[in-house]
């Protein structure tokens, strides 16, 4: 199986071994979005749960529990927002199901 859907097979009539620039662009955009989500997660949970005075080399129990809860909440909110946006997109598509040319 190929990473990001590039290479490794003859899909959609493309010769084996060819790289579709559109797939590269989509994979790059997806990686950028994942990196952004990760960076926002780290920034948010680090500032909320970890003291700026590092007195111990490892997380203490309270910090660890806080990080676990923060990450769980972050992904739950991310999931709910994604579902809401998807529903809004589907209802907008359903409402405008006529011709895109206005006839």
Automatic annotation (TrEMBL):
Subunit structure: Heterohexamer.
Superkingdom assignment: Eukaryota
UniProt keyword list: Chaperone, Disulfide bond, Membrane, Metal-binding, Mitochondrion, Mitochondrion inner membrane, Protein transport, Translocation, Transport, Zinc
UniProt free text on domains: The twin CX3C motif contains 4 conserved Cys residues that form 2 disulfide bonds in the mitochondrial intermembrane space.
UniProt-listed Pfam families: zf-Tim10_DDP
Topology within the bilayer: Peripheral membrane protein
Function: Mitochondrial intermembrane chaperone that participates in the import and insertion of some multi-pass transmembrane proteins into the mitochondrial inner membrane. Also required for the transfer of beta-barrel precursors from the TOM complex to the sorting and assembly machinery (SAM complex) of the outer membrane. Acts as a chaperone-like protein that protects the hydrophobic precursors from aggregation and guide them through the mitochondrial intermembrane space.
Localisation per UniProt entry: Mitochondrion inner membrane
GO molecular-function term, one example from the UniProt record: metal ion binding
Gene Ontology CC terms, in alphabetical order: mitochondrial inner membrane
Family recorded in the similarity comment: Belongs to the small Tim family.
Annotated protein name in UniProt: Mitochondrial import inner membrane translocase subunit
Annotated organism of origin: Rhizoctonia solani
Tim10-like domain residues: 23-87
InterPro entries assigned to the protein according to its UniProt record, in alphabetical order: Tim10-like, Tim10-like_dom_sf
Gene Ontology biological process terms, A to Z: protein insertion into mitochondrial inner membrane; protein transport
């Amino acid at each position: 199986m190929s990473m990001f859907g590039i290479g490794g097979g003859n899909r959609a009539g493309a010769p084996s071994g060819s790289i579709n620039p559109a797939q590269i662009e989509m994979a790059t955009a997806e990686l950028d979005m994942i990196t952004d989500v990760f960076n926002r997660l780290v920034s948010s949970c680090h500032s909320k749960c970890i003291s700026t005075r590092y007195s111990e080399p490892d997380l203490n129990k309270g910090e660890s529990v806080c990080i676990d809860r923060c990450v769980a909440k972050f992904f739950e909110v991310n999931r709910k927002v994604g579902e809401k946006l998807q529903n809004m997109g589907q209802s907008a598509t359903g409402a405008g199901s006529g011709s895109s040319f206005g006839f």
